[in-house]
Amino acid sequence: MTHSGGGGPRPRGTWWREGALTATAFALCLLGGTVRVDDTLSPPPAAAYVIAVLSCAVLPVRHRAPLAAMAATTAVGVLVQPLGLVLSPPVVAPAVITAYTCALTARTERRAVGVVSLGSAALLVASVPLSGDLSWQDASRMGSVAAFPLMAGVLGHSVRNRRAYLAAVEERARRAEESRDREARTRVAEERVRIARELHDLVAHQITLANAQATVAAHLFDTRPEQTRTSLTELVETTGHALDELRATVGLLRQSGDAPASAEPAPGLSRLPTLLESFRRAGLEVSVHHEGTARPLPPGVDLTAYRIVQEALTNVTKHAGTGSARVRLAWHRDRVTITVADDGGGARTAASAPAGPHVSAGADRAPGYGLIGMRERATAVGGQLSAGRRPEGGFLVTTQLPLPPAKQATRRTDGEDGDAL
Fold first, then answer.
1. Where do the domains of the chain lie, and which CATH numbers do they carry?
2. Are 268 and 275 in contact (CB under 8 A)?
3. Which of 215, 201, 200, 203 is nearest to 323 (CA)?
4. Per residue in 99-130, pLDDT tens?
5. pTM above 0.70, yes or no
6. I need a labelling partner for 124 at 20 to 30 A (CA). Which of 32, 57, 146, 174 fits?
7. CA pair distance 152, 158, nearest whole angstrom
């Protein structure tokens, strides 16, 4: 039995299957026409050919009009006994085929059940002997004639449910695949944004230090050659570190099969002394103060804290117009508060831009993204950041980052408030 549906053109293989099915049904009808009441066989009469032709002629259109095909084959089956033939299961083979198709393609389950049941009932009534007593042989033949269409309808309904189930499974799989693709694209976009932030922080920090060291070297070139040489040496070290970090960060973009990138862990507050020393070499005096008991931070929070301090001090070096800054870390039960303050009064660009990327502090400066990046970093790990001018002068950056529950103090700082590293 073919399972094709629809009324459009069909593949060549479908027509071959339809032809084979129709020929088989025609042969069964003729075979049923050879059976007599006493179960003997005789050559099929002309009425058998008429029944076979009429009932099988509608089979090719049963997919387009299943109800009409079911009605036609059932009506032909009802005419079998009046034409002098025995109504047996082989004769009603076309009605069995159309019952299967009707149950498979009906719009609703109720319609399929009603049509198939009505057709089976009609064939059952038509198979009652017109004369004589009802024998067990007659009753067996009547049951078979009525049961075959019902069994075909049940089979068609089962196949229909199976197809619907498989279609639902395929649809869920397709949606899951699309969801995975969207999630993968989202993760790629987020990773690109993260790498862009890393590059911004790295380049801004290292180039600012290199610029400050070059400025010092140029200023002292004629008067203090030895100090100039020291500044140039530090400039070489700074640019070397910048290249190493830039290589490690861009290495995240490598494809599989490329040379392995550096396995150095991401920076955190443990590298804060090295960071502050690089600023001191550039001429910025930085003091750091601790409050409370320091605890290890999760990797993401640790990196965020380091980058915020780095960006805030870079902004002080570029825009504050002062030679000193203060870093304060206050450790609480569920958060760490980091503040970076200076007393300068210079023009602010990256740090003082409110929130939008198109705000500039001066006509000759490009818009700054430092504050935007710091705020996004803090928000990404569940923290918050605020920045603005201090009433007494200078600029203040404050961020609060979440801490994991403290089970025990893992380390303590070396001094109380006011102890500079």
1. 12-175 (no CATH), 283-421 (3.30.565.10)
2. no
3. 215
4. 888 888 776 667 767 777 777 777 777 667 66
5. no
6. 57
7. 10
